[in-house]
Amino acid sequence: MTLLRIVLGLVVILAIGTAAFIGYAWHSRLDPIDPPAKASLDAKLLARGAELAAIGNCNVCHTAPNGEAFAGGLGIPTPFGTIYSTNITPDPETGIGRWSEEAFSRAMRKGVDREGRHLYPAFPYDHFTLVSDEDNRALYAFLMTRKSVSAKSPANQLPFPFNVRMLLAGWKALFFREGPYLPEPGRPAEWNRGRYLAEGLGHCGACHTPRNRLGAEISDQHFAGAEIENWTAYAIDSGSPAPLPWDAESLAFYLRHGWHDRHGVSRGPMAPVTANLGAASEADVKAIAAYVAEVMGRPSKERLAQGEAALAAARQEREAAPLRRTGETGNGAGEAIFVSACQGCHDGRRPPPFGGLNLHLSTAVNAPNAQNIINVTLYGLPAARGEPSAMMPAYRGVLNENQLVALLDYMRERFSRQPAWTDTRERVSSTLRGERKVPVYRMDGTTHAPPETSMRTAPWP
Q1: DSSP-assigned letter for residue 433
Q2: Do residues 186 and 126 lie in contact, with contact meaning Cβ atoms separated by under 8 Å?
């Protein structure tokens, strides 16, 4: 009898707990609406929405390869399976044309769609929750005036139990804290604006912060760097590997133009970010830069001295080219490849964006791993379409595995004071075999893989 009572008690507790969880996880369906007429929306509101969409990189995730802008269908790989982005054009059947502003704001603020289903955090509502009602209104107006595209996204490829959306309520209980952003008292307005944009709509931490096994950002490693799409998103805290420390001015220039003469050009998933920020207001970009620069912190005297040494080495390299001595590292094979294939652009005589960065100043050469310099060497930096830009040829098919490893080892030893990389050959081998899928972005942020549109180059109203 005692055992039976214990079993019945456990069943009752389980039933109550299940009912409580369902009550917590359940959200009602919001009524559909007729899409608002474009003529009814204020032009200034639409313009502001376009800037905010650029800061949020909405086009990047919501545009499939060779697809229509914002029509979704992009497969986003995660450790749990592939999640496909949704159609956010005003199509009434496959997009958000029947969504009210309330439904849109709920998705941004709570991570719940119009039907009441929990959204996967591949849509970074853990950041978007901070967005203000006013900015959500502008974003909604902008998206509801895009070209309506009938495009149904493929079904997510997620195994059980990750395909059970209600379980996301548990993830939210553990890791999600609903906004909106509250300005920090005593801080300058520009700093608060920058923090609001970087932590909210800009979702910088989504790439630059490592994640735990459940896919949540590790809060005590904020901006400490991570790997995304088999590119390294560098640390943008005090652990930044940049040879020359960043400051607010250099960050603002880089974010707005996609290059800086002492830091190089953006590439990989960062290329669409800087391309889109070219469409944002200068004040907002400066605010983001001011906030990130403070997160990085004031560099120490030792760090500043290292930066000055890197600048001096780059200057000496430039003045000595092309008469630089050989045999300085003992890596004759790597040096021969560098002199014949790389030195002509990277001797520092033609600064970025139309010349190669002197590698004494290269973050990629000084990074904790070689992945970014592997990607750039193999796939190059494709030029922008229809405008002058930086570019670099691809050496995939030109250099074999041994040659590429020798070149990378030479560059690390020659241009960096950091210890040798330990996993270079493994990374080179897996990238050459295609085990590391690497999206290659043009310098305007577009590519044959996501995205195919840029907020900077597209004719936004």
Answers
A1: T
A2: no
Do 275 and 248 belong to one domain?
yes
Cβ(293)–Cβ(247) below 8 Å: yes
Greatest Cα pair distance in the chain: 94
Q: Same domain for 160 and 194?
A: no
Hey, how many other C-beta atoms are within 10 angstroms of the C-beta on 11?
10
Instruction: Report the alpha-carbon distance of residue 188 to residue 313 in Å, rounded.
Output: 38
Structure tokens at 363: 């973050």
| Cα separations in angstroms, 286 against 143, 280, 290, 294, 355 | 25, 10, 6, 12, 26
SS3 165: helix
Report the distance separating Cα 388 and Cα 2, nearest Å.
Answer: 81
Long-range contacts of 428-436 (CB under 8 A, 24+ apart): 428/370, 428/374, 428/401, 428/404, 429/401, 431/230, 431/371, 431/374, 431/375, 431/378, 432/378, 432/396, 432/401, 432/404, 436/230, 436/371
- Output the pLDDT for position 442: 80
The string of pLDDT tens digits covering residues 241-269 is 999 999 999 999 999 999 999 999 998 89
Last residue of a domain, one of 122, 141, 175: 175
60 falls within a domain: yes
Mean pLDDT of the chain: 88
- The pLDDT of 380-388, averaged and rounded, is 79
Q: What's this model's pTM, rounded to 2 decimal places? A: 0.90
CA distance 330 to 233: 31
- In 141-192, beta strands by DSSP E: none
Q: What is the DSSP letter of 221?
A: G
63 phi, psi to nearest 5 deg: -130, 120
State the residue for tokens 């499939």. Answer: 64
Report residue 9 CA to chain centroid gap. 49
For the segment 222-237, the average pLDDT, to the nearest whole number, is 95
CA 53/CA 104 separation, integer angstroms: 14
127 shares a domain with 87: yes
